[in-house]
């Protein structure tokens, strides 16, 4: 293996592996340093996303959704199913297989693109030099014409609920339960809390979520958050807001002490998941004397094009500012590779979609009404309920709505907020429209197939101009 490359990447999550593949495509010799070891003891590419994040959580969300459908929703279609059994072991094994297929796929892509994978811990020791420490502690130094830091993030721990990895776990542990906990506590009703809470709730757990904020899903459009809160309540998720967890005691079960506006409270659960956010992986990532600058929140400081404070050192993904989302990191990885190769690289941070993979799904892009109000921008909204579309009725999936927000003067689309079936796919239409600086009118004039859920987007666009067909405007 060489000791000198055009590009050396630290971290093989979605930000790092995409940066590496694009660099190799552009003709640059590339190496990636990654230290991740999967639960079976095998080193694995793909980072948090493929091993313990996006992919395994979506695999379990899908399995649990199938189970829930068979048990509860098929009856409405006239399908009676008896004797439904749950096999958690097989469900977890399927999830592991999906993960292995995908991480193995990245390994193949590295081979095909002649990317060297240097297993171990990477540290920027001086500009253009990365020290790699392998599992036995042996070190070697590799030179990189450019270095890309893509070390990702890890879960935030809280003193009131220290993990014992048995009863009290983080999101990694929540993907590995061997049986359905009768009572499941979750600290933090954010994205992970709602997704993992949905999985185990569908499989039969009694789930209580303790959320510190008084407002449910703060970053989400208020109208959408209200629909979500009601839907989750109807599903049996017990979401308690304004809770300050003060202590936990783990024995045969976990006792969780917290305070809300009514005073001191206590719940007993069989498992407790702590998911109160993630923080950037910067420990032992760079030598102090390199002079690499972190921002006030501890992320690697970068400009719009992911340049750090050091020449030829870039940083991408969760370790830098912006939403902690796989696709955001991937786009930054591509941008940086193109810039290093002397081409044009760009990420439009205003059109990054968000998705929460609950049922119904929640997806949004751009700005909310609250944000536009506080920025003093006048706007028009168009809202359309899925219940009024033929396809949603046919699917028995009528909860939810599409809400589009357009500039009052120019009609340019400023935000799209969807809760409902396939929201994760439908949001792409709004992203494309916004990327091309399109107007609600543009969407309204585009032919949408009938009967589809995308007619909800079409009707919402018509509703911005108060001319939706299938509702009273
Ligand atoms: P990571 O994926 O964290 O990868 C960083 C890699 O670098 C890891 O392999 C790490 O071991 C390695 N590393 C770190 N430091 C070093 C070092 N010094 N030397 C060598 N190697 C190092 N996002 C979505 O967009 N959609 C989702 O549905 C979604 N679901 C999620 C579900 C869960 C449960 C979790 C936890 C996260 C989820 N995310 C989701 C977030 C997503 O996983 C992250 O945004 C994404 O993985 C960040 O990519 P990254 O490449 O920056 O870092
Ligand atoms: P989050 O920021 O989404 O939610 C954390 C929640 O915990 C917040 O609502 C916060 O108010 C609350 N909280 C914080 N401290 C608390 C405390 N002491 N007690 C009670 N509540 C507390 O973070 P997360 O759910 O841990 O997920 C981390 C990140 O991973 C997300 O921000 C997201 O970027 C990424 N992720 C994305 C997806 C997706 O795209 N579908 C899925 C999972 C994770």
Quick rundown:
This protein is an alpha/beta fold and 473 residues long.
Topology (elements, then pairings):
Blueprint: E1 4-10, H1 14-25, E2 30-34, H2 47-52, H3 54-73, H4 88-112, E3 116-119, E4 121-126, E5 129-133, E6 139-149, E7 153-155, E8 168-169, H5 171-174, E9 183-187, H6 191-202, E10 206-210, H7 222-235, E11 238-240, E12 244-250, E13 254-260, E14 263-269, E15 271-274, E16 278-280, E17 313-315, H8 326-340, E18 354-356, E19 361-366, H9 369-374, E20 379-385, H10 390-395, E21 401-407, E22 413-420, H11 423-435, H12 440-444, H13 454-464
Parallel strand pairs: 1-2, 1-6, 2-3, 6-17, 8-15, 9-10, 9-15, 10-11
Antiparallel strand pairs: 4-5, 5-6, 7-16, 12-13, 13-14, 18-19, 19-22, 20-21, 21-22
Helix pairs in contact: 1-8, 3-4, 3-6
Can you give keywords for this protein?
473 residues, alpha/beta, FAD/NAD(P)-binding domain, Enolase-like, domain 1, 3 domains, 13 helices, binds flavin-adenine dinucleotide, binds nicotinamide-adenine-dinucleotide
């Amino acid at each position: 293996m060489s000791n000198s490359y055009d590009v050396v990447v630290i971290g093989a999550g979605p930000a790092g592996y995409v940066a590496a593949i694009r660099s190799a495509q552009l003709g640059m010799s590339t190496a990636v340093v990654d230290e991740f070891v999967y639960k079976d003891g095998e080193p694995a590419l793909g980072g948090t996303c493929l091993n313990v994040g996006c992919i395994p959580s979506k695999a379990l969300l899908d399995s649990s959704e199938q189970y829930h459908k068979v048990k509860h929703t098929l009856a409405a279609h006239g399908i009676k199913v008896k004797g439904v059994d749950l096999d958690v072991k097989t469900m977890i094994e399927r999830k592991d297989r999906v993960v292995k297929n995908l991480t193995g796929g990245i390994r193949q892509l590295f081979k095909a693109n002649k990317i060297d994978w240097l297993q171990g811990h990477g540290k920027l020791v001086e500009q253009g030099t990365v020290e790699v420490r392998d599992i036995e502690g042996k070190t070697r130094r590799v030179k990189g014409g450019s270095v890309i830091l893509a070390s990702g993030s890890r879960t935030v721990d809280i003193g009131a609920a220290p993990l014992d990895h048995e009863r009290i776990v983080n999101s990694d542990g929540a993907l590995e339960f061997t049986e359905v906990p009768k009572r499941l506590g979750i600290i933090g009703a954010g994205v992970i809390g709602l997704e993992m809470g949905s999985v185990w709730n569908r499989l039969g757990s009694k789930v209580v979520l303790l959320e510190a904020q008084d407002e449910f899903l703060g970053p989400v459009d208020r109208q959408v958050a209200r629909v979500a809160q009601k839907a989750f309540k109807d599903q049996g998720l017990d979401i308690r807001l304004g809770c300050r967890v003060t202590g936990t005691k783990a024995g045969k079960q976990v006792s969780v002490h917290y305070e809300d506006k009514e005073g001191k409270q206590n719940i007993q659960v069989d498992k407790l998941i702590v998911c109160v956010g993630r923080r950037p992986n910067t420990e032992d990532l760079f030598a102090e004397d390199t002079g690499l600058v972190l921002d006030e929140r501890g992320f690697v400081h970068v400009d719009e094009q992911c340049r750090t404070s050091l020449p030829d050192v870039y940083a991408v993904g969760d370790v830098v500012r912006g939403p902690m989302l796989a696709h955001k990191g991937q786009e930054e990885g591509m941008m940086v590779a193109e810039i290093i190769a002397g081409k044009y690289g760009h990420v439009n941070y205003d059109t990054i979609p968000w998705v929460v993979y609950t049922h119904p799904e929640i997806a949004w892009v751009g700005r909310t009404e609250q944000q536009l109000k506080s920025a003093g921008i006048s706007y028009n909204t168009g809202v359309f309920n899925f219940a009024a579309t033929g396809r949603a009725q046919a699917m028995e999936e009528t909860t939810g709505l599409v809400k589009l927000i357009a500039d009052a003067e120019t009609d340019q689309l400023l935000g799209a907020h969807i809760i409902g079936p396939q929201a994760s796919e439908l949001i792409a239409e709004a992203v494309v429209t916004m990327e091309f600086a399109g107007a609600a009118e543009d969407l309204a004039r585009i032919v949408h197939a009938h009967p589809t859920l995308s007619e909800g987007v079409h009707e919402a666009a018509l509703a911005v101009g108060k001319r939706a067909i299938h509702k009273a405007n």
